[in-house]
Amino acid sequence: MLLTAGLISALAVLCLLSAGIGAYHIPLGDVLSSVQHRAGLGGAALDRVGESVLWNVRLPRVVLALLVGASLGCAGALMQGVFGNPLAEPGVIGISAGAAAGAVAAIGLGLTLFGNWTVTVFAFVAGLGTVLLVYALSRSGGRTEVVTLILTGIAVNAFAGALIGLFIFFADNAQITQITFWQLGSLAQATWPKVLAVLPCAVAGLVAAPFYARRLDLLALGERPARHLGVDVERLRIVLVLVVALLTAAAVAVAGIISFVGLLVPHLLRMANGPGHRFLVPGSALGGAVVLLAGDLAARTVAAPAELPLGVLTALFGSPFFFWLLRRTRRRQGGWA
Amino acid sequence: MSRTRAASLRGLFAARSRALPPPVSPGCPVAEAHGLGVRLGGREVLGGIDLTARAGEVLALVGPNGAGKSTLLAALAADLRPDQGEVRIGGRPVDAWSAPELALRRSVLPQAATLSFPFPVEDVVRMGRAPWAGTALEDEDGAAVAEAMAATEVTAFAPRPFSALSGGERARVALARVLAQRAPLLLLDEPTAALDLRHQELVLRICRERARAGDAVVIVLHDLGLAAAHADRTAVLHDGRIAAEGPPAEVFRDALLSRVYRQPVEVFPHPRTGVPLVVPKRLS
């Protein structure tokens, strides 16, 4: 399909650009040749500095951006399908904040229960708890109304913010720096071990998600009609809520709070190609990766040599979009009432 | 050749995983309620209901607002668990079927058709074929969708988004989805509520055709005239119980309807067809 091909080629171009552009410039040809060399397909290694910049700084960051972006985009598409509500997004309804509160708790309390995995595990458990909480609080009669969902999001965001504030209050300076990173959202601390830490979560979620696409289409009819068509709705929901928590936690654990990607990407794709989830779910993963890669490239080049926090950048562009979406939904429904 | 092998493999797999419903001969019970009782919010909504939907028959559920028609339909559809008694579909208690198995045996039209995302009309109708995915009857998908859309006269808006349709058009699209499912039991909750005169008749004609083809149709109706003209049997519900059951010509009596609806009515035969007409008693 044309759109898929476009997204994939945009992704490839952005990968190459991100690998080359930066404080230490690496020409495109050199990037390709070094990658070829490592893959054992000819090519040649760069000089010592170039090789180190490319393989220890740039590429882990590119891979991390791909994983985080794909996770966020896919989680957004799934969440909107499960809630039957186009405004559901891990950031908007407070799941990212919940996961971040878990991560910050792990940092603030200096926990090392699970070694390298501690922060990821805490982010995951807190994210899962938040998903379940929001889910239980915002549903009534098998539907989630926009107002209920947004208000629940406000409450959950406020509570998670308060927890994060509490941990900041008791944290020392080094911990505060680390915590601030969570709140702003950034890929600046990308390393291969971090990539490996999120890889299982992200890949498991991304691989599982497309299998539920057809059932998500049916869920758009409502809970009962979906059951009449043979969908085990309760099980579908629980599995997908787990997948969303998995994806969100993976993203938040390494990159902090990066909001609006999961809202923006599925929406644009739905406008371009209709609401069918068989394209939307994998397409949103692809689109999320493109958006985050482009965002990260912008974040570290726009104000060079300084680096903007990525989460700030996505929120800067995402918020007006969210506002527009609210207006549109309101107009279609003829008010909130 | 590889296509046929794939199809036969698929058929083999489907036959093992899910038994397709066997054809039922006319007059045999498809859905049965025995001693059914339902309480909602501490109030008895249904009590002591015994009702059978038979293959080849249109059964109309009528009664005043709040009599329990929709609750009874929901219980037959296995949407809610009865507090007393049981519901059987295809000879087995509904609890014994899994959701995918049940979807091959009954289709349900809800009172209001909603859709969270703007799918085009044809995709919505095609959703009705989802239960057959992976079975031998999957090959009928295209034909079933086209036939259902033609029968409900929605073919013309196939590419339009569902959300852009009027209430009556949405109701017909929802019905087309239910017809495309081709289940041997159709449970329809007020399919005519949003429709104009022509399409009300159309929907009831479709119900009769489906019954003639061997399906069991249970339909909640407000219009007693439609029920009298098209149903083989009617059940009059009153305060959660069946006040009368039988062919409309026998059941629709002045005294019964006046009492149940708390509105004096007169019933008289149509001068040409002899079908009972129900008219409220007016002073002048």
From TrEMBL, chain B:
Residue ranges occupied by any ABC transporter domain in the UniProt entry: 31-264
Record keywords, A-Z: ATP-binding, Nucleotide-binding, Translocase, Transport
Keyword Transcription attached: no
InterPro entries: AAA+_ATPase, ABC_transporter-like_ATP-bd, ABC_transporter-like_CS, P-loop_NTPase
Single GO term (MF): ATP binding
Signal sequence coordinates: none
The UniProt record lists the keyword Nucleotide-binding: yes
Gene3D superfamilies named among the record's database cross-references: P-loop containing nucleotide triphosphate hydrolases
Protein name, per record: Heme ABC transporter ATP-binding protein
Organism, scientific name: Streptomyces corynorhini
